[in-house]
Specification:
Layout lengths: L14 E3 L16 E4 L6 E4 L2 E3 L8 H9 L3 E4 L5 H10 L7 E5 L3 H13 L5 E5 L6 H13 L4 E7 L2 H9 L4 E4 L13 H7 L3 H8 L6 H5 L5 H13 L4 E5 L5 H9 L4 E4 L13 E4 L2 E7 L4 H7 L13 E5 L5 H18 L13 E3 L13
Parallel strand pairs: 4-5, 4-11, 5-6, 6-7, 7-8, 8-9, 9-10, 10-11
Antiparallel strand pairs: 1-15, 2-3, 12-13, 13-14
Helix pairs in contact: 5-9, 10-12
Length: 376
């Protein structure tokens, strides 16, 4: 029989963080570095736990070069060849410790994964990524990868419920990607100046730009509000000494801080890193303005590019948009890190690891007043 869970489930847009007494004088006093020891691989990680998503428009080698300088992480997309990996590794040895090799779950994916990891043993992270992390086939694949690579740290997902987090951790994964159907959520405030400046039609903008590149919710009716998913999944993972990544739903630095405050160990970003010089996607110029193509990895564009194309038994679950070109990604990274540091000062967290302990969420009906959002 169908069942309705009537308990309240919330997204990032539904809450704000309550400020608390703080002894911090400046954002410079906040330490964003985290250190983790992973349950299954027994590896140690130290860095700022923000990850560029493994989309071919985001998780690029060019992005990795810049993020690594800030001690950020990149889940490199799975469409680079072995030769490209070898060339990058030889030219950028300092970046390797902050990279993960991404893989699907087909036999050819596993073969390519083994080739890369055998050729570049310095790479110690694997990102196993599927649209539906609830598949038994995916669980078995995680077990196979763990058996083959016992000392590598495995990221696996995506799921949104505690019981599946526990199953994947017990199957050999170290870090679980949490997030499902994050498209069509909220119009990020950082897009409003673009709308006003270029006189775009708001209704069209909402159709094509709201939320992330995922359309799973509208195509399938499946999803879970991200804030609640992170809180519930973090509780399940931490009970087993596992870790989670909040993957999706962030449209501004405040959302990144909320994800950490909710208990996420890592936060994965896609759309916030789109449209930069280091992002993948075609650069387009129209009427004197520059744009970059940004699309989800389950979009029709991606499926036609990498095959197989959309068939008669499946639907595209991703969008394709043209993002205003933003130049180098360094300024965006600094803005994100500055925002999270400011959050920590507001709640009195001297270190990022203290943020979830100092977080009290307040339910709200509005995030910000958009009246004066237009750039002068």
């Amino acid at each position: 029989m169908p069942h309705i869970d009537s308990s309240v489930k919330l997204d990032f847009k539904d809450v704000l963080l309550r400020p608390k007494r703080s002894t911090l004088k400046s954002r410079n006093e906040v330490d964003l570095t985290r250190s983790f020891s992973f349950r299954n691989s027994k590896q140690m990680y130290t860095g700022i736990p923000i990850i560029a998503a493994n989309m071919d428009t985001i998780g690029t080698f060019e992005m990795a070069r810049v993020l690594s300088k800030f001690s950020l992480f990149t889940a490199v997309h799975k469409h680079y060849s072995l030769k490209q990996w070898e060339e990058f590794a030889s030219q950028n040895p300092d970046c390797i410790q902050n990279l993960a090799v991404s893989s699907g779950i087909e036999s050819f994916d596993f073969y390519k994964l083994k080739q890369i990891l055998e050729a570049i043993p310095e790479v110690k992270y694997i990102c196993l990524d599927v649209v539906n992390g609830y598949s038994e086939h995916f669980v078995e694949f995680v077990k196979d990868v763990r058996k083959c690579f016992p000392s590598h740290t495995i990221m696996a997902g995506n799921v949104v419920t505690g019981e599946m987090v526990e199953e994947l951790i017990l199957s050999g994964a170290d870090i679980i990607k949490v997030g499902l159907g994050q498209g069509n959520l909220v119009l990020g405030g950082h897009w409003l100046p673009f709308i006003n400046k270029h006189r775009w039609n708001m209704s069209l903008f909402l159709v094509f730009f709201s939320g992330s590149m995922c359309t799973t919710r509208t195509k399938t009716g499946v999803g879970y509000p991200q804030l609640s998913a992170v809180m519930e999944c973090a509780d399940a993972a931490h009970g087993l000494n596992g870790h989670i990544i909040s993957d999706g739903g962030c449209s501004c630095p405040g959302d990144v801080a909320k994800a950490f405050g909710a208990g996420a160990d890592f936060v994965m970003l896609g759309g916030m890193l789109a449209g930069h010089s280091e992002s993948g996607g075609e650069l387009i110029e129209r009427n004197g303005k520059k744009y970059k193509l940004f699309y989800g990895m389950t979009s029709e564009v991606a499926m036609k590019k990498y095959g197989p194309a959309v068939t008669d038994y499946r639907a595209s679950e991703g969008k394709t948009v043209e993002v205003p070109f933003k130049g180098g990604v360094q300024s965006t990274i600094q803005d994100i890190l500055g925002g999270v540091r400011s959050t920590c000062t507001y709640v009195g967290a001297a270190k990022l690891k203290e943020l979830s302990q100092r977080t009290t969420f307040i339910r709200v009906t509005q995030q910000a007043n958009p009246i004066f959002s237009e750039e002068s």
